[in-house]
């Protein structure tokens, strides 16, 4: 039976990327060595990092004056690296979900981190609007896509202070005006690579302005100056990221990715909205294309476990909703083919007909 991978992360990767990675685990570029055992200083690995950076810059049209670096520690380490490097006195945060709230909590260890708005009162089912960004803040932090609750910010907003964005789960899913951001970061295990590598896109002139001493490994300048090679980087995930970036370029770049993601999201949301049994969980104008959350209507609530079993038997993988939301979540990242979304919709329709 064909499996349809809707896991929220680590998540689906293009099949050809997986196969190329698997081959390189056995023999990297005909060198007779596995990529798992080569030195990151080897002459044949440096081109991998260089190409990954170049493709990032090309696909997102990153302007001059920005660096792309690859780090460890996941997005969670960035929750402290961002304020460590950028907050002198005050920072502003938009609280739109679990990860945004965790980032805010870490920032409060470094100074006055203010919450400009929050949707926590409604279990993060919408993106706050009509808030004021304090002009005396050192930066304004947003989380563009919320994997748990299924909301997304797709507007590259104008900010009076440097804009910092956690784009862990929607990076490379659409064109982004990078010039409007001071720093973009994310764990790569949702739309780019296996778990283990974190990407950071940082405007270089933002760095070096805080008065506190910064530990060497937590200083962005260390990694910018050393091309992500200050210490041993996560070699395999960087290689897979490079392959995924190649795949994206070959499949229409950001415009192609956005068109495919819109088609997948429209297909599933349309099925949810027309259903007598299922209902979406967030405000329609704030719906995520990446993580589509839905539940059973109250009168069918007792059938949730039955549908979960039915869907699993039909090859659906990873559609159980996060425990804080319940119900179901279909993560429709770049590598997920529209055929998998069609299969899920067929599965939903068939279950509804039977009940």
SSE layout and pairing:
Blueprint lengths: L3 E2 L9 H12 L19 H14 L6 E6 L2 H13 L3 E6 L2 H10 L4 E7 L21 E4 L1 E2 L4 E2 L10 E4 L16 E5 L10 E6 L16 H6 L9 H16 L2 H22 L3 E3 L10 E6 L7 H10 L2 E2 L10 E4 L6 H17 L1
Parallel strand pairs: 1-13, 3-4, 3-5, 5-8, 8-9
Antiparallel strand pairs: 2-10, 6-7, 9-10, 11-12, 12-14
Helix pairs in contact: 1-6, 2-6, 3-4, 7-9
If you had to describe this structure to a student in words, what would you say it looks like?
The protein folds into 2 domains: about 15-250, Aspartate Aminotransferase, domain 2 (3-Layer(aba) Sandwich); about 250-355, Aspartate Aminotransferase, domain 1. The chain has 9 helices and 14 strands. It has helices at about 15-25, 45-60, 75-85, 100-105, 220-225, 235-250, 255-275, 305-315, 340-355, and strands at about 5, 65-70, 90-95, 110-120, 140-145, 145, 150, 165, 185, 200-205, 280, 290-295, 315, 330. The chain has a 7-stranded mixed beta sheet, with helices on both faces. The mean pLDDT is about 95.
């Amino acid at each position: 039976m064909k499996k349809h991978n809707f896991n929220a992360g680590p998540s689906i990767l293009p099949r050809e990327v997986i196969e190329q990675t698997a081959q390189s685990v056995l023999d990297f570029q005909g060198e007779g060595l596995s990529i798992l055992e080569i030195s990151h200083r080897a002459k044949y690995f440096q081109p991998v990092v260089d190409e990954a950076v170049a493709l990032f810059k090309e696909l997102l049209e990153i302007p001059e004056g920005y660096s792309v670096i690859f780090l460890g520690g996941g997005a969670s380490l960035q929750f402290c690296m961002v304020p460590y490097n950028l907050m002198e006195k005050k920072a502003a945060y938009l609280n739109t979900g679990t990860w945004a709230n965790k980032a805010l909590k870490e920032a409060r260890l470094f100074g006055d981190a203010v919450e400009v708005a929050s949707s926590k009162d409604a279990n993060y089912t919408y993106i706050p609007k009509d808030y004021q960004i304090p002009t005396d803040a050192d930066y304004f932090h947003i989380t563009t896509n919320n994997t748990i609750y299924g909301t997304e910010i797709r507007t590259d907003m104008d900010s009076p202070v440097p804009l910092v964005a956690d784009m862990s789960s929607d990076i490379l899913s659409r064109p982004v005006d990078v010039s409007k951001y001071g720093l973009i970061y994310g764990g790569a295990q949702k739309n780019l690579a296996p778990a283990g590598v974190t990407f950071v896109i940082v405007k270089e002139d933002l760095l070096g302005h805080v008065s506190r001493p910064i530990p060497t490994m937590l200083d962005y300048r260390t990694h910018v100056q050393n091309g992500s090679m200050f210490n041993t980087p996560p070699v395999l995930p960087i290689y897979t990221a490079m392959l995924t970036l190649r795949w994206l370029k070959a499949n229409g770049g950001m415009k192609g990715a956005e068109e495919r993601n819109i088609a997948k999201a429209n297909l599933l949301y349309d099925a949810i909205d027309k259903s007598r049994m299922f209902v979406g969980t967030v405000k329609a104008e704030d719906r995520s294309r990446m993580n589509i959350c839905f539940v059973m209507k109250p009168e069918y609530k007792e059938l949730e476990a039955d549908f979960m079993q039915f869907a699993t038997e039909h090859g659906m993988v990873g559609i159980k909703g996060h425990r804080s939301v319940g119900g179901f979540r279909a993560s429709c990242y770049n590598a997920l083919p529209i055929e998998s979304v069609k299969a899920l919709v067929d599965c939903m329709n068939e279950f509804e007909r039977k009940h």
